[in-house]
């Protein structure tokens, strides 16, 4: 027999299995209201898309700074070290380093956003309670509209037994 719980919190929207129902491994037994989970996935996708757009901007800035620095170094070489001023070249080098640092920061943001998106997608999938085994539903501890709070301990929603043809009775 297997106690089946849920790792996420929400409100039970659908109950798809009841006492004595035969169920198959992977079958959905109940679903939580998924609107909040859907919204979180969309929000995470938006954050990821924004970070990717910032990366394109940062890469364009790096190209611009590299070209400006190369132009200054070329001008300095052609002028025999007179123009532009050394201070301008130092500033151009610093601008390029800042642009490279910004790109690395944005790459970190993308990694973080991808992780959050994956987490939110996983929680969306987990908003459906599925049975891991074939069997018969022995117990259902969830009702439609019930709020499920999965904070410190995973609440048991269903109990499914694999085989009821052999039973052991303990009688006092």
Set out the fold topology.
Layout: E1 2-5, E2 10-15, E3 22-23, E4 28-32, H1 35-78, H2 86-126, E5 128-130, E6 135-140, E7 147-148, E8 156-161
Antiparallel strand pairs: 1-8, 2-4, 2-7, 3-6, 4-5, 6-8
Structural notes for this entry:
Helices cover 49% and strands 20% of the residues. The chain is of the alpha+beta class. The strands form two sheets. The protein has a four-stranded antiparallel β-sheet with strand order 1-8-6-3, with no helix packed on it. Helix 1 packs antiparallel against helix 2. The longest helix has 44 residues, at 35-78. The radius of gyration is 29 Å and the shape is rod-shaped.
Contiguous runs where pLDDT drops below 50 for at least 5 residues: none
Number of helices: 2
The radius of gyration is 29 Å
Number of strands: 8
What order do the SSEs take from the amino end to the carboxyl end, as H and E?
A: EEEEHHEEEE
Helix and strand composition category: alpha+beta
Shape: rod-shaped
**Biggest sheet statistics:** 4 strands, antiparallel
Task: Round the mean pLDDT to the nearest integer and report it.
Answer: 94
Strand content: 15-25%
Measured as a percent range, the helix fraction is 40-55%
Strand order of the largest sheet: 1-8-6-3
Q: Measure the end-to-end span.
A: 22 Å
Keywords:
172 residues; alpha+beta; four-stranded antiparallel sheet; rod-shaped
